[in-house]
Amino acid sequence: MAEPEVEVRRSKRRRRTVSAYRDGNKVVVLLPARMSQTEEKRWVADMLSRLQRSETRRRSPARESDAALSRRCRELSAKYFDGRTEPSSVRWVPPMRTRWASCTPSEGTIRVSERLRDVPGWVLDYVLVHELAHLLVPGHGKDFWTWVKRYPKTERAIGYLEGLSAAAQLGIEADDDLDEAEGD
Ligand SMILES: [Zn+2]
């Protein structure tokens, strides 16, 4: 993973606590106002490695292989689609210019961009649910979203992906994922 851009913010209200969070590709580290440069350096390094460890823990086991990705799709299909969606193939593909994933409903195939290998599991799950729903409803109409929104973190995941796309200036459009004319 590339070294993220770090923004240090110091606050007079902070006495001892140090915290950090990711904002797109940037990491914001919050420090107490009175802290030496040496302490700042040590804390920034410490917070970056903590953040990375927690993000690594949150990644999906589906990142490991196409087989693991297919397995995850079967679990999600059982949970959110009563087992009604059965893709003929699901695989990781090299980063696509304008897409996180794509689906060919008539063939039942789903492809997921390598760019998503390191996102939290709940974000990858949303993308898989989105593509699985296309096997039932090809377009992005009301019926489609009724299925997708059975996945409770849909809104949050869409926000996460928009942030990721904006931060990396990828220009990826959420709804540009169908390889065929939309049916709605
Ligand atoms: Zn779609």
UniProtKB/TrEMBL annotation:
EC class name: hydrolase
Gene3D superfamilies: Metalloproteases ('zincins'), catalytic domain
Annotated InterPro entries: UTP_pyrophosphatase-like (IPR053136), YgjP-like_metallopeptidase (IPR002725)
The entry's keywords: Hydrolase
GO MF entry, a single one: hydrolase activity
Pfam families assigned: YgjP-like (PF01863)
Documented EC number(s): 3.4.24.-
Boundaries of every YgjP-like metallopeptidase domain copy: 86-151
Protein name: M48 family metallopeptidase
Lineage: Bacteria, Bacillati, Actinomycetota, Actinomycetes, Pseudonocardiales
